[in-house]
Amino acid sequence: MAVQTAASTTDSTTVDLGSAAALSCRECGHRVPLGPVFACEECFGPLEIAYDFSAYEPEDLRKRIEAGPANIWRYAPLLPVPADVADKPNINPGWTKLVKADNLARELGVTGGLYVKDDSGNPTHSFKDRVVAQALEAARVFGFTTLSCSSTGNLAGAVGAAAARAGFRSCVFIPHDLEQGKVVMAAIYGGELVGIEGNYDDVNRFCSELIGDPAGEGWGFVNVNLRPYYAEGSKTLAYEICEQLGWKLPDQLVIPIASGSQLTKIDKGLQELIKIGLVEDKPYKIFGAQAEGCSPVSVAYKAGHDVVRPQKPNTIAKSLAIGNPADGPYVLDIARRTGGAVEDVNDEQVVDAIKLLARTEGIFAETAGGVTVGVTKKLLENGVLDPSLTTVVLNTGDGLKTLDAVAGTGLTATIRPNLESFREAGLA
Amino acid sequence: MAVQTAASTTDSTTVDLGSAAALSCRECGHRVPLGPVFACEECFGPLEIAYDFSAYEPEDLRKRIEAGPANIWRYAPLLPVPADVADKPNINPGWTKLVKADNLARELGVTGGLYVKDDSGNPTHSFKDRVVAQALEAARVFGFTTLSCSSTGNLAGAVGAAAARAGFRSCVFIPHDLEQGKVVMAAIYGGELVGIEGNYDDVNRFCSELIGDPAGEGWGFVNVNLRPYYAEGSKTLAYEICEQLGWKLPDQLVIPIASGSQLTKIDKGLQELIKIGLVEDKPYKIFGAQAEGCSPVSVAYKAGHDVVRPQKPNTIAKSLAIGNPADGPYVLDIARRTGGAVEDVNDEQVVDAIKLLARTEGIFAETAGGVTVGVTKKLLENGVLDPSLTTVVLNTGDGLKTLDAVAGTGLTATIRPNLESFREAGLA
Q: What distance in Å separates the CA atoms of residue A147 and residue A155, rounded to the nearest whole number?
């Protein structure tokens, strides 16, 4: 079942994944039926979902979405899921807050409207719940009974939680020497949590081996053989942002880059809304954000390259620390095509940005959120972002998961329990 | 401004807090105008909000609520807030998931429908965001410029975040030797975080001193001089549960007890919905849940007492560790009046229940959630809870904040990065 390429070249399929019609190669356009495959049999390019949205009338679809549940399944007609998806047991992420960040806007000098899309509100407090929820539905349709992944943190928790809710077995692979907090968060859901004696690359390599082996039969690796479905979950960020803006495209978006998948799928989601007629067509710019200690896409962007040279990551923004991002070239293309850019900030700027966002908006972001806010600040200072335009910045995770990054933050005063001591400390 | 009792006895007031009409003493019924006061000038009983809901027609109100925002402000007509509350900067908590817990129901033998109201989805991941959001609106109306509280954790983070968003100064008092994680979470929002050399009782005593001193002028202590407003935030749990059940009362609710305020206000909220006609009147039972190491209300309930004898807390459920719960007698009254009960579980049962909920439903609860789930299990085993009735269990916080309680949870296996090692570990 878990094969890497598909034999058939027809679009005919017996699986019900809504308006998803086929898998299509991003490189050569070759189409294969929907299945648990991720690489093109012709050119080994990445497969992605091709849809048939031709039956949708924009006003009807808009009403149907607005009457839907307060989670990603309101967009079921635009996702590779069965029509009755909302009735099946899943973690039901999404419909997170789009916070109008007026205090932050004032500090940064943004006048056109600044918003933070805060995905720390998801069930396991990161955007990974969106992609895992999609992969889970695909796993169900394809008859997998075990949900798996390689991970260093957020993904492990999201897979463990979703599998538990949906009644799947889960088996998650992580480097054996991860921080205790991440291990607990991944283990609490009761699935198998296997430590691999090696680093994250070793974990990844082992998972690829397992997919090709009979032992991996019946296993859905959310970020490998279910990747085409998994990745579509990121489109829901685009849909929600536009709906929350009153069915309008923002002018500028600042999006973190790990593998680059999220950024490319947000662009795909925006393009779909335009094509279907749910939003008015107008230009928008997409900006990619990296940490300086893992900035292969930013470096390539600045050098004018089309290819991305891998880096060995060294940054506190560990959820973005992918040194060889699979979708890097597509990110470069989107940033250039839309008139955006790719920028990076150093770890000190990441920490400052986490504190800035918390102090101005009461949002405690993961290091990845520090990267996007920090890059937003830098791009404004450099005149690359236009402060007079509507700008949306993504926070994809929760500060509680990366406490170490801001461990220096603490008491502003220590006093004895009396008013005299209170006055002496200058607090009155 | 921050006086403890009010001089006037009329209901006339110039503040706009919606349908809130006056403050009324819970003990003697004495009414005073809305103001930053919390104790009755006649009998020193606790003051609570009295409303005028006479203008509401149920169908109109229901439609108005359903068309409202996806947060607690959809219930603005039933809360002590101005009509335009949703337009003001606040943390906007609520409308958290009511999870149909079919897996947990199966394990516990519940056939009548089991639901978990999961308040870990709030902005700072605990139900405290609900009460702080209310207190903030009262603080704004009464002209306070500093938001304050005494806290050992969840409340500190909620106050810090809400003050940041709303542009208030914040000054939060905690024991100086709290765990680093809680300190970081409280400090990150940039307000004053003052460590008191002493225990939580010393912190509380100092705060009471400060309220009576000119140095406390202009300070709104959310859980002291703003307590009548603050406490009303818990009513929104009752509203949401009923609306999410299709405007129906549940048959049984299991609610944690710290001060007891939350339980009493949920009962108040249910009663309001019945009186206004938003739900059909029928009996419901309220069950209180405590940890054995801090079980003053449970002990009093079982002994048939009307008064609660204080305890010195010693439990891992620190967010419930109030040894002298102010609303304990009211909780006893509600449990007995509705045909419910109060029960407690020990720390081992709390940890088991945290794991049970995670394993069955993918919800990682704080220790307080372990208490309610553990008590639910115990009450079912003892035949006190009826498994054939619709039951709602509250999870009021997030497991990420109490990682220490489940620190023993970890890897299920460690292997070398190859298939042979994988097979040897029996994972195939």
A: 12
Chain B nearest-CA distance from A195, in A, is 4
In degrees, rounded to 5, the angle at the alpha carbon of residue B202 between the alpha carbons of residues B199 and B204 is 110
Answer whether B358 sits within 8 Å of A161, measured CB to CB: yes
Nearest to A184 among B176, B198, B407 (CB): B407
- CA dist B351 and B362 (Å) reads 15
For chain A, how far is it from start to end, CA to CA, in angstroms?
Answer: 69
Nearest by CB to residue B164, choosing from A157, A210, A362, is: A362
- Pick among A422, A423, A424, A427 to test the B interface (most B CBs inside 10 A): A422
Interface confidence, given as ipTM, is 0.94
Distances (CA, A) of A225 to A1, A208, A258, B249: 10, 9, 19, 45
Residue ranges per structural domain of chain A: 1-52+128-231, 98-125+234-406
Compute the nearest-CA separation of B283 from chain A (Å).
29
Q: pLDDT by residue (tens digit) across B88-132?
A: 999 999 999 999 999 999 999 999 999 999 999 999 999 999 999
Q: Is B3's pLDDT higher than 50?
A: no
Measured between beta carbons, the chain A residues lying within 8 angstroms of B95 are 70
Q: What are the strands of the beta sheet with A252-256, ordered from one edge?
A: A98-100, A114-118, A391-395, A252-256, A285-291, A341-345
CB contact under 8 A, B362 and A163: yes
Domains A1-52+128-231 and A98-125+234-406 share a fold: yes
Q: How far apart are CA A273 and CA A157, in angstroms?
A: 31
Distance CA B150, CA B221 (A): 8
Q: B128-230 is classed in which CATH architecture?
A: 3-Layer(aba) Sandwich (3.40)
Look at residue B13 in the predicted model and tell me its pLDDT: 52
- Chain B residues lying within 8 Å of A167, measured CB to CB: 103
**Chain B residues lying within 8 Å of A196, measured CB to CB:** 414-417
Q: What is the pLDDT of residues A144-189, one digit of tens each?
A: 999 999 998 889 999 999 999 999 999 999 988 887 778 998 999 9
pLDDT in tens, A69-113: 999 999 999 999 999 999 999 999 999 999 999 999 999 999 999
Nearest to B130 by CA among B79, B82, B77: B79
**Separation in Å, CA A132 to CA A90, A124, A155, A219, A317:** 10, 11, 8, 14, 21
In CATH, what class is A98-125+234-406? alpha beta
Q: What is the structure's pLDDT at B179?
A: 78
Closest CA to A182 of A335, A393, A398, A412: A398
How near does any CA of chain B get to the CA of A400, in Å? 7
Question: Which residues make Cβ contacts (< 8 Å) with residue B405, sequence separation at least 6?
Answer: B316, B350, B351, B354, B367, B370
User: What amino acid occupies position B63?
Assistant: K
CB contact under 8 A, B165 and A103: yes
The CATH label, of 3.40.50.1100, 3.40.800.20, 1.10.10.60, 1.10.8.60, for the domain at A1-52+128-231 is 3.40.50.1100
Residue with tokens 């489940």, as numbered in its chain: B406
Amino acid at position B408, single letter: G
Q: Do A102 and B95 touch (CB under 8 A)?
A: no
Sort out which chain B residues have CB atoms less than 8 A from A185's CB and list them: 364, 399-400, 403
**Across chain A, which distance is largest between two alpha carbons, in Å?**
81
Count chain A–chain B contacts defined by CB atoms under 8 A.
240
Contact list, B209 vs chain A (CB under 8 Å) = 418-419
Give the nearest chain A residue to B365 (CA atoms): A188
Interface test mutation site (partner A, options B66, B99, B122, B411, max chain A beta carbons within 10 A): B411
